[in-house]
Amino acid sequence: MPQKIVLFMTVMCCLACAAEDEKFVNPLFYEIMDPISKIAWQTTLTPTKKIVDNGLGTTMEEICELTENTMERISLKCRGVINPDFGEEENTYRYTLRPCRKENGCYYHGRWLVEEETFDEKGYDLGGATLIIK
Question: Is residue 31 part of a domain?
């Protein structure tokens, strides 16, 4: 009987450790990303959420799972209501960082260019947006 208790406690400890929030490898992904393309909204990311704000009082939040996590790129598989007409959707967002330079047109606007790509649950490309970290 005591062996079962020890085994149970070990499993519970392992599950508790696994449930802790992951962290982005690159802390730049925590910063607010401002839109520089027409279709984008201000975006804030965590390993478990995507929050977008249009600056006019509308904010949308999706619950996410971190599926890729490198210094240059993260991917989030998210679920939420983006368009009330379609109900809850599941999309994957990929964010890729590039330093701002004169060649990519953002040198005077910020420090980092962020390319956002969006894919539906079947993997179809839904387009993207361009964001900037100041």
Answer: yes
Question: Tell me: the pLDDT tens digits for 1-22?
Answer: 444 433 334 444 443 444 446 9
Q: Is 78 exposed, middle or buried (0-12, 13-18, 19+ CB in 10 A)?
A: buried
Structure tokens at 3: 């062996």
For residue 15, with 0-12 CB atoms within 10 Å meaning exposed, 13-18 middle and 19 or more buried, which class applies?
Answer: exposed
Label residue 85 by pLDDT band (50, 70, 90).
Answer: confident
- Into how many domains does the chain fold? 1
**Residue 49 resides in a domain:** yes
Q: What integer pLDDT is reported at residue 17 of this predicted model?
A: 42
Tokens coding 35: 């839109």
Query: Which residues are bridge partners to 78 per DSSP?
Result: 64, 91
Q: CA-CA distance, 107 to 15, in Å (whole number)?
A: 45
Residue 48 domain-assigned (yes or no)? yes
Q: What's the angle, vertex CA 34, arms to CA 30 and CA 36, rounded to 5?
A: 140
Q: Residue 51 falls within a domain, yes or no?
A: yes
